[in-house]
Design brief:
It holds the Pfam family PDZ_2. 20% of the residues lie in helices and 38% in strands. It is built from six helices and 21 strands.
Length: 400
């Protein structure tokens, strides 16, 4: 027999009336005859709910008080040409009709604020993490405003375009700073707090929400027309707006679980953040070597999906397919690189790294990113229908 549960207005209205009646009966049943006091069970439940809400609110308030001093705003200024408008009389009939036309000319330059973003201090000596796209213009100047209203000139230390991370620095000492949590321990539904320079105007704006998803892969585009792939992103419903880029996403202990990077266009409360472990590896690299160093294998690959496997008659529906692109610069295997030295060839399918399967939720690049330059990793490779194991010593790549 087929189910015929249609959500018609009548059915919904009738169901609502029945539920309302039951609620009313239940409420009256729990009220004592002589007054309005709730039953002991209902009263205990109400008090527990109020206590929980009060404790949660208190935790959020305390966390924001702790974190706010370490969250900064960034303004971007640049010399832009002044456009001057002129009116000219181009009447072809001797000035009888006198219709003016407009002409524009660039004359002189003026420094203007052209953008902004957010960031957060990660050390007492002034190191700050933000998004690469916030400080991407080499011809612009960047000013940091700390929570106490003080103004600081920012020095760009290094940028990592592959992960949209930048490390900048301000002078001085005894700065408040935030610590990182382990983003591998995050859970969907976990409460989080986002802080940032919303719309580039409202500094240290606070929003709360939960982690809506993990391991997302998104294509993030900037207002300048650039785009990049961000994998392993954290999805959250905490409100993230333009200008929040680079701000921290915090757990209720005040530790950084991610850095706000993008918002889904046309959506409500669908934002994304870069996981803290990816940020921490860049920070550790700068602290050790003065620049961002990334491990690399020296291959170009395509993440296999069932559709790609079918279209190309591949023998596996998952893994990283080593394949060349267009032109000599997009070789499948970099000559003399780590993968080349280990015998990896075009057409190979890499199935595992150190026992972890490469899937849609675990890309090869994200697994390599968790390693360090110089580490030796073990690969399970599929070639011509046969699996074998090989080792690769990861090289050192400075993504400037």
């Amino acid at each position: 027999m087929n189910n015929i549960f249609h959500k018609s207005p009548f059915f919904i209205s009738l169901a609502t009336s029945l539920v309302t009646t039951l609620i009313v009966i239940s409420v009256f049943a729990s009220i004592s005859v002589g007054g309005s006091a709730l039953s002991p069970i209902a009263e205990e439940t109400r008090r527990a709910e109020q206590a929980y809400l009060g404790e949660t609110e208190s935790v959020v308030v305390d966390t924001v008080k702790h974190a706010n001093p370490a969250v900064i705003s960034i303004t971007v200024r640049k010399n832009v040409p002044l456009i001057e408008r002129y009116y000219e009389d181009e009447d072809l009939f001797g000035g009888i009709f006198g219709v003016p036309s407009e002409r524009y000319e660039e004359r002189n330059f003026e420094e203007r604020e052209i953008g902004g973003g957010s960031g957060f201090l990660i050390s007492t000596d002034g190191y700050i993490v933000t998004n690469r796209h916030v400080v991407e213009d080499p011809n612009a100047t960047y000013t940091v405003f700390t929570n106490d209203g003080k103004k600081h000139d920012a020095e760009i230390i290094d940028k990592d375009p592959a992960l949209d991370i930048a490390i900048i620095k301000i002078s001085g000492g005894n700065h408040p700073y935030l610590s990182f949590a382990d983003s591998n321990n995050l859970e969907v539904g976990q409460s989080v707090i986002a802080i940032g320079n919303a719309l580039g105007e409202f500094r240290n704006t606070v929003s709360t929400g939960v982690i809506s998803g993990l391991g997302r892969t998104i294509i993030a585009g900037s207002l300048g027309g650039q785009s990049e792939v961000v994998d392993q992103a954290i999805q959250t419903d905490a409100a993230i707006n333009f200008g929040n880029s680079g701000g921290p996403l915090l757990d209720l202990s005040g530790r950084v679980v991610g850095m706000n990077v993008a918002v889904a266009s046309g959506s409500q409360n669908v934002g994304f953040a870069i996981p803290s472990n990816n940020i921490k590896s860049a920070v550790d690299s700068v602290r050790r070597q003065g620049k961002i160093i990334r491990p690399y294998m020296g291959i170009r690959y395509v993440q296999i999906t069932p559709e790609i496997a079918e279209e190309n008659s591949l023998s596996s529906s998952r893994g990283a397919w080593v394949v060349s692109g267009v032109g000599p610069v997009e070789r499948a295997v970099v000559p003399g690189g780590p993968a080349d030295k280990s015998g990896i060839k075009e057409g190979d399918i890499i199935l595992e790294i150190d026992g972890v399967e490469i899937t849609s939720g675990k890309s090869l690049s994200s697994l390599v990113r968790d390693k360090n330059a110089g580490d030796v990793i073990t690969l399970v490779v599929l070639r011509d229908g046969r699996q074998f194991t090989t080792s690769v010593k990861l090289g050192e790549f400075a993504p400037r």
